[in-house]
Amino acid sequence: PDQFDADANQRSGGMAVRPAGATAPKGSNTKNPRFALLFDCDGVIVETEELHRKAYNASFKHFGLVIPGKGKVEWSVEYYDILANTVGGGKPKMRYHFDNNGWPSFFGGSKVPRTDEEKTKMVDSLQDMKTEFYKGIVESQAEARPGVLRLIDEAIAAPDIAVGICSAATKEGFLKVVNSIVGPDRLSRLDVVMAGDDVTKKKPDPLIYNLAREKVGLPASKCVVIEDSLVGLRAAMGANMPCVITPCPSSDVPDFRAHGARAVMDVNVGLGDGAGAVVTLAKLFPPNATEPDFDFGGGYGSSGYGSSGGVGSSGAGSYSVSAAPTRVTRGADGVVYDPDQFDADANQRSGGMAVRPAGATAPKGSNTKNPRFALLFDCDGVIVETEELHRKAYNASFKHFGLVIPGKGKVEWSVEYYDILANTVGGGKPKMRYHFDNNGWPSFFGGSKVPRTDEEKTKMVDSLQDMKTEFYKGIVESQAEARPGVLRLIDEAIAAPDIAVGICSAATKEGFLKVVNSIVGPDRLSRLDVVMAGDDVTKKKPDPLIYNLAREKVGLPASKCVVIEDSLVGLRAAMGANMPCVITPCPSSDVPDFRAHGARAVMDVNVGLGDGAGAVVTLAKLFPPNATEPDFDFGGGYGSSGYGSSGGVGSSGAGSYSVSAAPTRVTRGADGVVY
Q1: Which listed residue (42, 255, 543, 566) is catalytic?
Q2: Is 354:549 a contact under the CB 8 Å cutoff?
Q3: How many CA atoms within 13 Å lie on the side-chain side of 175?
Q4: What pTM did the predictor assign?
Q5: Is 466 among the residues known to form the active site?
Q6: Cα–Cα distance measured from residue 115 to residue 104, given in angstroms and rounded to the nearest whole number
């Protein structure tokens, strides 16, 4: 989503300047802080999104905006809800909308802006007028969200907690809100105050949070961010900061946990006030604690995903966002907001410890003793480029059963569609359910009977999957080979007694075992510490259950477990488990900006992990001797600990695979889903 940011090509600058008009923190009480608490403004401190929408529409009406052939410009509640969760900052929102729907003329005239200079002038004029309307609306309608001023006051009063506000809004509108709602006295006692104008790149870029971290002088893990949207969550994750989400009542809420949030509040209760206070300073930063605590009680948060009483479970009082929504949310341009909402396993309960797949040898030969770190590999797309092999096997199964969707014809997945599907839905059966739910359920051999009940649908999918697996085994034997560098890195990890190593796949057990036995080999398998397939967990990726169970198995904290993945589905699973993730994208993948979604490093799409003299990711680089945390600076521009840093992915570092440039085409599935 941040490809539409007008500032996307600007260089990240130095320390941001405090907004003019916001008093410097002369009254700050902070000394030698243990932690920092950083608040977003719009949607967190005050529910402003509907106020912003009204102000934008007032500005559009003021200038009589008309898009030739489409009519007047007006943002509906539903469309703005998606827009607010997709693009950070006001000007980028307008640019995104006009780039995808056509640039308008003023007062219904025939002249539309053609050059970037003309477009910038139009957006600037619209934003200035919007700000004027917004100031009047704020004065009459804005009020603080539950619990936010209480929590700010608690943080201000604590000398060992730094506190700040980091907003993507324009300075003038931001100051109107904070001076009106937060008040000059509180503002004068904050340690950090920054608006969107003070950084060269807007959220979801993490620059504003990286600069705040420099200002308070703490590591990212000690800085807790309070956000309300996916855009803000991505900014926090990009800065490697834990994030608590307090979604707005106006938000069409995605599964924030699957995207990496450490806790998600009730959409109506917020942070809570009085006897109903949920997030308190004492709970978040207990005395003498060395890391934040996200177990707020009552089912509102924990350090895991889908844990007992947590969001995504049945804990009383929690706001569950794991259930599949009852409708598909699309923008005016047809974009489906949250692709992983279609996961057929989304409502399953996370079960107990997964069982090692039958046929995979237990790690009798494991060399691991008192591990410092763990290295966890996905299988399909990471160990072997199997997506095209899977596609052929699915189509062979569809053909075998003569699948026909009434009124649409035979079922066959194209290369382009399967590429999107593989990055959208985890697991084979969920892929088929997703496709049939959105395109119609088929009949066998062109007959008239299509499955109606869930039991009938399950039987059909099971039959298709069983036959697909048989075709797949034959294809694997004749065509599969390991991707560059993966067996070398597995061997390095197996040989190191202080590194646990495992494979965690979303594939069905039978197909998975065919691949790992053929490519990895029985000897390596017998020396691994963790081996799990999709059948061994009750919830498939992007749910993080498989990685949470692997972490329990190796007995290490999530921060010490590095995941190697190839897709957004896998990255979301790693992020949901709070594990750092390295992406090695497949040549077949239509590659998104993995860095913006939280990846710590992204490999060259053709080089992979690298072999021989061209080895990129090595055990010595990733887990240096005596290091207390992994190192993602592999040299040559392939990775670093930051986002968009010098030489990193998303910059001009030689040898890196840049995925930050705007794509030249929009990739859609057969059902219109934009990947």
Answers
A1: 42
A2: yes
A3: 13
A4: 0.40
A5: no
A6: 13
